[in-house]
Amino acid sequence: xxxxxxxxxxxxxxxxxxxxxxxxxxxxxxxxxxxxxxxxxxxxxxxxxxxxxxxxxxxxxxxxxxxxxxxxxxxxxxxxxxxxxxxxxxxxxxxxxxxxxxxxxxxxxxxxxxxxxxxxxxxxxxxxxxxxxxxxxxxxxxxxxxxxxxxxxxxxxxxxxxxxxxxxxxxxxxxxxxxxxxxxxxxxxxxxxxxxxxxxxxxxxxxxxxxxxxxxxxxxxxxxxxxxxxxxxxxxxxxxxxxxxxxxxx
Length: 250
Known about the structure:
By secondary structure, this protein is an alpha+beta fold. It has 2 domains: 159 residues, Immunoglobulins (Immunoglobulin-like, Sandwich); 69 residues. It is 21% helix and 33% strand. It contains 6 helices and 13 strands. It is globular and about 55 Å long. It starts with a strand and ends with a helix. The relative contact order is 0.18. About 19% of the residues have low confidence.
C-alpha cells in the first residue's frame, strides 16, 4: 500500500485542550472508503530537536480510536498537559489481521503550550480548542496524487499534496526513506553495524542483500529495514530511534 507525506504540519494542538484529529482513507476514483475491519492502528511521534521526546498512540494502548475507514486521535486535555511543546514527525500505521504493519502516512504536527493560564486579552481571545477536524486521504488508482483536507470547518482548511506510490515527486526517493549511508552511519554510531553485516544473507537474490549492496534508500517497513530489525532484535520504537538517528547524519 502507498505511503504519503503531508506537505505541511497539522495543528497547533494545545497542551490544555483535548486533541481530536480523524484520519479517513479512501481508495480509487471516486473514492471508496477503505475498510479497517479486523485491523488496528498506531501513530508514532518523535520530537524534532532538544529536548527529545517520543510517544505512541494506538487503538490497543489508548489515545487512538478505530473508525470504519481510518483512525481518530482522542487525547484528553489532562493527558496533553504532559506533552513537551514542539514539532513532532509522525508515522501512521495500519496493523492488518495477518500481522503485517503498513505505513500509510508520514507527516508532522505542532504541539503548543496552552493558553489557559494566560492573562485576559493575551492570545487573541478565547482559548483555542484542540480539534483538527478531518484529514481525508484519497488513494486514487488512476492519478498519482493524494489530497488531504484538514479542518473540516473546525479550523482553517489546509490542503496539502502528498506523494503517492511511496515516492517523492522531486527526486524519486521513497517517502520516509533515508539514504543507505545515513543508516549505516547510524548503526555505526550505535555500535551495531558489524552485527548487521554478520547477519547479511549470503544469497545474492535475497531482497535485503540486493538493497544493501545497491545502497538503495531505506524506508520504514521495507525489506532492508525488516532485516535490520530482525538482525538486532529491535522493537518498533528502537527502529524509530534508528531512523531518527540516521536523519541526523544527513
